[in-house]
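Journal club side-thread
Mid-discussion, someone asked how the predicted structure for our own chain would compare to the paper's figures. Pasting it here so we can look after the session.
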Amino acid sequence: MQVNSRDFFLFLSKNKTLNRAAQSWGGGIASGKIVGGIDFPSSVKFIKELNENGLAVTVDHLGEFVTSKAVAKERTEECIQTIETIAAQKINSQVSLKLTSLGLDIDEQLVYENMTKILDTAEKHQIMVTIDMEDEQRCQKTLDIFKDFKQKYNYISTVLQAYLYRTTNDIEELNQYHPSLRLVKGAYKESADVAFPEKIDVDNNFKKIIKMHLLNGNFTAIATHDDAIIEYTKELVDKHNIPKNQFEFQMLYGMRATTQRELVKEGYNMRVYIPYGQDWYGYFMRRLAERPANLAFVLKGMTKK
């Protein structure tokens, strides 16, 4: 049933008719519920509410697989403006982005130019920029670009996905850079040639890479809604006396809000991933594909607003 649900939600995420319909409805149905707003300024009030409750944030302008250099440059300027606004308003927020939104599928040199502008701004304001991981075919390019920039900038991190076979090797290979990493299960549809097809294997690998990265002494963001993974992490850090400033939990905006606040009360660092923009529909469907149980979390969140 889970595989069928995953395929179903991924199919819906790619349905152009539904995506266009969702954009025509506007962001009102999702703003303040599963996304911040249709743009960053309209999201600021929701981010500040989270900050007031002790929750840090990372923001992401929705929209990937850009095929126009002009659009990629627009996304770059928008990201720079977001960083400037975060700094000016003293918001407790980082920034996440996808390299395809900066032109990865167009021209690699274009990505380097755009990322340099963004990271120059981020370095000036000491605001972390996380490169989101996309599908497996873009994984190596993403890591190569990350490694290049990590040698020049401090405020850059990236994401590794537990469902890929390669990830334990990536953890080992990246350790020389002492990277800050967000660890996730993974949301894209991949073949059994490159990814674990069974949930239990993904979960076991998730625990393995969390342990590897933490014991390597690197900052680790554990992005999960799974209680078993959260409890595993708590037990692991207690056993090995890992300080709480070496890791944080991350969850999606609009999902498990009560659990997020409880983790803060327990003294853990908790960061909320809050996307914004017109392309909220595809994002929403991919999150449901990643874990169909997220549907229950979203419905609870939306009915409480």
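Post-session note: The two ends are 30 Å apart (CA to CA).
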